[in-house]
Amino acid sequence: MARYTGPVCKLCRRERIKLFLKGERCNTGKCSITRRKNAPGAKAVPMRKKQSNYGIQLREKQKLKRIYGVLEKQFKIYFMKAEKQKGITGNNLLIFLERRLDNIVYHLNWAASRSQARQLVKHGLLIVNNKRVNIPSFLAKSGDEIKIKENSNIDKLVKDSVKSRGQKSIPSWLVVDNKRISAKVLRFPEREDISIPINEQLVVELYSR
Fold first, then answer.
1. Which of 65, 70, 185, 186 is deepest in the core (most CB within 10 A)?
2. Are 171 and 193 in contact (CB under 8 A)?
């Protein structure tokens, strides 16, 4: 399955919740989910109010995949790894997703959205432990040092993003120096550090069928 390239606002309408796929711009009055109550592709047809247990679990999985921009095959790999680790499978799954390099760049306020953060990584503009990394799914570890490759145009883009998202707090498991545009991973995230509106247990139940 190829990556979705259509209007991201349709995804929010499908999941009936703001997924913030455009970053902070989703807080404006132009957000389609506040203006349209029907599902995408179904004019004047209201969203179904009743869903089966399977449908609820499926929507929760789709919501989680879309927030982090992960395709089905990769998402299932994360789940299998989470299942093999000690601890709660749902928590392990979220921690894997949070450790992705593109997600960390977004949390550091260096990009306006996770999709923009993914582009920064893909273009080879991220340096991790003095090595260039261009894989968005790279999993950061405790002690990793992350910085932006020296480039005046990118420096300006990152600084503009930091300025526009200045009120967005940095997770406690990360520390950032915006003057040097560098950061460090202090530790692995914990469930309490993850504030996305997700019931991960429903995802676990779906894959346990």
1. 70
2. yes
CATH 1.10.1050.10 boundaries in the chain: 8-97+197-207
Q: Which two tokens stand for residue 69?
A: 């921009």
Q: What is the largest CA-CA distance in the chain?
A: 54
Tell me, which fold does domain 100-188 have in CATH?
3.10.290
What is d(CA 189, CA 154) in angstroms, rounded to the nearest whole number? 27
pTM: 0.80
Compute the distance between CA of residue 149 and CA of residue 110 in angstroms, rounded to an integer.
Answer: 12
Helical segments of the chain, H only: 8-15, 32-35, 53-68, 72-84, 89-98, 101-107, 114-122, 152-164, 200-207
CATH topology of domain 8-97+197-207: Ribosomal Protein S4 Delta 41; Chain A, domain 1 (1.10.1050)
- DSSP reduced 3-state for 177: strand
